[in-house]
């Protein structure tokens, strides 16, 4: 059994590298084709693994997600803010700003599998561009 873990760890760096390249391709494609859409970026002093690719739209994301899903594109909203989960409903919450809620309502997690091709990303971005109109 330990050999399975070692083999997976050896593949991990390769997968992270592919996900970083995927993120860069998404960034270039979205920047070229879509105004007002922000792709989550790494800071210059960090090296992210780019495990997921999220965008923030100027408009609510739910209708866009529904259109993408109708085209067999796996898109979903970002996570629900913890204070909005039923398990935390009885706890007091001090909201300084509504950033988490805004992101939940305006952001989308895009398909980010390490095996995605540039053609698949182009399809996602084209569908996203059309669904955002």
TrEMBL record:
Domain of life per record: Bacteria
Organism (species): Cupriavidus necator
Record InterPro entries: DegT/StrS_aminotransferase (IPR000653), PyrdxlP-dep_Trfase (IPR015424), PyrdxlP-dep_Trfase_small (IPR015422)
Pfam family, one: DegT_DnrJ_EryC1
Protein name per Swiss-Prot or TrEMBL: Uncharacterized protein
């Amino acid at each position: 059994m330990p050999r399975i873990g070692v083999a997976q760890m050896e593949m991990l760096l390769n997968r992270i590298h592919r996900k970083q390249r995927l993120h860069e391709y998404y960034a270039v494609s979205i920047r070229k084709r879509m105004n007002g859409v922000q792709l989550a970026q790494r800071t210059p002093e960090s090296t992210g693994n780019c495990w997921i690719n999220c965008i923030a739209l100027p408009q609510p994301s739910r209708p866009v997600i529904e259109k993408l899903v109708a085209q067999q594109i796996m898109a979903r909203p970002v996570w629900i803010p913890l204070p909005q989960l039923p398990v935390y409903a009885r706890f007091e919450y001090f909201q300084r700003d509504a950033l988490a809620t805004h992101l939940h309502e305006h952001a989308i997690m895009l398909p980010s599998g390490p095996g995605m091709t540039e053609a698949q990303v182009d399809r996602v971005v084209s569908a996203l561009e059309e669904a955002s109109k």
